[in-house]
C-alpha cells in the first residue's frame, strides 16, 4: 500500500497558533505525521498569532500540546520535529507584520526546490478577511509558489457572512488554492459511510424508501464547553454541529454512488441540495432546541450551561437541537431524517441509525430491523434482526450482528490526513463553496426561528439523553430515539 506523504518541501503557516484548535488537534496531528515519516527533509511549521512569544516559548507550547494529547511520545522524533517549528508574532490586520512573516518564510525556504506553501486559518471567522488580504499583499501568497489556503469551519456565521468571506477568498485566491475544511471529512469512519455503501451492494439495495421508516443522524457529546465559552455562546449547537458535520454525514449516506472519486464533491452537493424542511404550520414541528442544566456526567457533578464561566445567566443559546428533514432524491422520498446533537449528554457517540419498516409478523417482543453505523464512541456496525423464541404463539428476541469498525492500516489523525491531501492538491474531502452555501441556506431560517423569544427553549440535566420534550416531539411521528 502506498502511504500518503508530503513529497516536496513545504511551509505550513498556522494563523491562530496560540489557540485551542492548534493545541488540541493540529500540533499533535503534525507530530504523528513526523512520527510516521510523512514529512520530507525540508519543511517548516510557522506559527503566527498576536500573542508575544519567542521561538523557544512557542516550541515549548507545541511540545506541551503534543504531550497533552498523545499517550506516548518518541522524544527523538519530537525533538527533530520541533527543530522545524518557528514563530512570528503579529496582528492579523497589519501589513508590516505580514512583511515580517514573508521575510521569515523566504529565509526558511532558501535552497528548497518545488516548495508548497500552506496557510491554515485556525482563527475566528471574523478575522479571515484581514488575513487573506494581507497574505496576498505581503507576497506570502506568491503566484510563483504552489499555494493552499485551508479555512476552518464554520465558514461564516450565517449566509451573509459566508458570502463576504467567499468573495474575499475568491478575490485573492484561485479555486485550486482554497481548501474549506470540515474535520469530520478527514475522519476515516465518516469517509467509510461512503465506502461501506460502495463496497457492499447489498446495503445499497436496502437503502430505499419502500423499506426504511426513518433515519437518525446523531452527534452526541458528553463534554461541555472545553474552554470555548465565547465561541459557543455566539454559535450554538445548530451552527456548530448541524451546519456542516451532520449535514455532511447525511449527504454521504444519501448521495448517488459514482464509479469515480473525482466526482465525489459534486455528488455530495447534489445530495445536500435535495434536503428540505418538511411542510409545517410552525417551525417548532421541524426543529427543537434545549440547554443543559446542572447534572452528573460519568459520576461527576457538572455546572449547568448558564453557570459556566463567561455565559450570561439569561443565555438562550441552544446546547441541544433536533431537526427533521426530507429529501427529494427519488429513492429517499418520504423518509424522514432526524438529526440530533447535544452537549453534556450521558455518552459520546456519532451514529447513523437506519430504522426499517415494521415487520410483517408482529408478536411479543418484536422490534423493527435497524442498522446502526457508529462512527465515534464504540465505533462499529450493528444489524438488529429478531428471531422467534420457542412456543406456539409468535414471540421474538433480538438477534444482533455486530462488529467493531476500527481503523486498521494507515490510520492518520483527521487534520494530518487533510493536510497531506491539501499538500497534494487533492480537494475531494474539502468542502466547496456551493456546499457551504447550500448548508447555510438550510440553517439560516432555522437559526432565526430559534433566536425568537417566542420559540421554546427546553432544559435537560447534564448526563442524560437530552430533553424529555424531544422524546415527545419525535414520538408524534412514531419515532423513538436510539439510546
Ligand atoms: N477548537 C475546536 O475544537 C474547533 C473545532 C472545529 C473548528 N474550529 C474552528 O477553528 C478556528 C480556531 O478555533 P480555536 O478554538 O482555536 O479558536 P480560539 O482559540 O478562540 O482562537 C484561535 C486564536 O485566534 C486568536 N483570536 C481569538 N479571538 C480573536 C479575536 N476576536 N480577534 C483576533 N484574534 C483572535 C487568538 O490568538 P492571538 O490572540 O494570540 O492572536 C487565539 O489563540 C475557529 O474558526 C473555530 O471555529 C475549532
Provide a quick synopsis of the model.
The protein has 483 residues and is of the alpha/beta class. It has 13 helices and 18 strands.
CATH architecture of the largest domain: 2-Layer Sandwich
Total of helices: 13
End-to-end separation: 38 Å
- Which CATH class of the largest domain? Alpha Beta
Q: What does the average pLDDT come to?
A: 95
The CATH topology of the largest domain turns out to be Dihydrodipicolinate Reductase, domain 2
Shape: globular
User: Mind telling me the C-alpha Rg?
Assistant: 24 Å
Helical amount: 25-40%
Structural domains: how many: 2
- Uncertain segments are none
Tell how many strands the DSSP assignment holds: 18
Q: What does this protein structure show overall?
A:
- With 483 residues, this protein is of the alpha/beta class.
- The protein folds into two domains: 10-152, 3-Layer(aba) Sandwich (Rossmann fold), CATH 3.40.50; 187-407 and 436-475, 2-Layer Sandwich (Dihydrodipicolinate Reductase, domain 2).
- 35% of the residues lie in helices and 23% in strands.
- The protein is built from 13 helices and 18 strands.
- The strands form three sheets. Strands 7, 8, 9, 12, 13, 14, 15, 16, 17 and 18 form a ten-stranded mixed β-sheet that branches. The chain has a six-stranded parallel β-sheet with strand order 3-2-1-4-5-6, sandwiched between helices.
- α9 (229-254) packs across α10 and α10 runs parallel beside α12.
- The longest helix has 26 residues, at 229-254.
- It is globular and about 80 Å long.
- 40% of the residues are buried.
- The mean pLDDT is 95.
- Bound molecules: NADP nicotinamide-adenine-dinucleotide phosphate (NAP).
- The site of NADP nicotinamide-adenine-dinucleotide phosphate has 21 residues, from α1.
Amino acid at each position: 500500500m502506498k502511504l500518503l506523504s508530503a513529497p516536496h518541501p513545504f511551509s505550513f503557516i498556522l494563523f491562530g497558533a496560540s489557540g485551542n484548535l492548534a493545541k488540541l488537534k493540529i500540533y499533535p496531528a503534525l507530530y504523528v505525521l513526523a512520527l510516521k515519516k510523512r514529512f520530507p527533509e525540508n519543511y517548516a511549521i510557522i506559527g503566527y498569532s498576536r500573542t508575544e512569544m519567542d521561538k523557544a516559548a512557542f516550541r515549548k507550547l507545541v511540545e506541551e500540546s503534543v504531550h497533552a494529547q498523545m499517550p506516548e511520545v518518541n522524544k527523538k522524533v519530537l525533538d527533530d520535529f520541533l527543530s522545524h517549528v518557528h514563530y512570528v508574532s503579529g496582528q492579523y490586520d497589519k501589513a508590516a507584520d505580514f512583511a515580517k512573516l514573508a521575510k521569515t518564510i523566504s529565509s526558511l525556504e532558501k535552497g528548497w526546490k518545488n516548495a508548497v506553501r500552506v496557510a491554515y486559518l485556525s482563527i475566528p471567522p471574523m478575522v479571515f478577511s484581514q488575513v487573506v488580504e494581507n497574505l496576498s499583499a505581503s507576497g506570502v501568497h506568491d503566484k510563483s509558489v504552489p499555494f493552499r489556503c485551508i479555512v476552518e469551519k464554520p465558514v461564516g456565521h450565517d449566509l451573509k457572512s459566508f458570502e463576504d468571506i467567499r468573495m474575499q477568498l475568491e478575490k485573492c485566491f484561485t479555486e485550486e488554492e482554497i481548501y474549506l475544511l470540515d474535520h469530520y471529512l478527514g475522519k476515516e469512519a465518516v469517509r467509510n459511510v461512503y465506502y461501506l455503501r460502495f463496497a457492499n451492494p447489498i446495503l445499497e439495495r436496502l437503502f430505499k424508501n419502500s423499506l426504511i421508516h426513518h433515519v437518525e443522524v446523531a452527534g452526541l457529546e458528553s463534554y461541555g464547553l472545553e474552554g470555548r465559552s465565547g465561541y459557543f455562546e455566539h454559535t450554538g449547537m445548530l451552527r456548530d454541529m448541524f451546519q456542516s458535520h451532520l449535514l455532511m454525514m447525511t449527504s454521504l449516506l444519501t448521495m448517488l454512488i459514482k464509479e469515480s472519486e473525482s466526482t465525489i464533491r459534486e455528488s455530495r452537493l447534489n445530495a445536500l441540495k435535495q434536503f428540505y424542511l418538511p411542510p409545517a404550520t410552525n417551525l417548532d414541528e421541524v426543529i427543537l432546541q434545549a440547554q443543559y442544566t446542572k447534572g452528573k456526567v460519568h459520576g461527576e457533578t457538572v455546572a449547568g450551561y448558564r453557570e459556566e464561566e463567561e455565559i450570561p445567566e439569561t443565555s438562550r443559546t441552544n446546547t441541544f437541537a433536533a431537526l427533521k428533514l426530507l429529501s427529494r432524491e427519488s429513492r429517499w422520498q418520504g423518509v424522514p431524517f432526524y438529526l440530533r446533537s447535544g452537549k453534556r449528554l450521558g455518552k459520546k457517540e456519532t451514529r447513523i441509525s437506519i430504522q426499517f419498516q415494521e415487520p410483517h409478523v408482529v408478536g411479543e417482543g418484536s422490534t423493527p430491523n435497524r442498522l446502526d453505523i457508529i462512527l465515534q464512541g464504540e465505533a462499529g456496525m450493528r444489524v438488529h434482526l429478531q428471531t422467534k423464541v420457542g412456543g406456539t404463539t409468535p414471540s421474538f428476541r433480538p438477534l444482533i450482528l455486530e462488529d467493531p469498525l476500527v481503523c486498521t492500516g494507515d490510520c492518520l489523525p483527521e487534520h494530518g490526513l487533510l493536510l497531506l491531501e491539501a499538500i497534494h492538491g487533492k480537494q475531494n474531502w474539502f468542502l466547496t463553496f456551493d456546499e457551504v452555501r447550500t448548508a447555510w441556506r438550510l440553517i439560516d431560517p432555522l437559526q432565526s426561528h430559534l433566536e425568537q423569544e417566542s420559540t421554546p427553549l427546553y432544559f435537560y440535566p447534564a448526563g442524560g439523553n437530552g430533553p424529555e420534550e424531544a422524546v415527545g416531539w419525535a414520538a408524534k411521528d412514531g419515532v423513538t430515539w436510539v439510546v
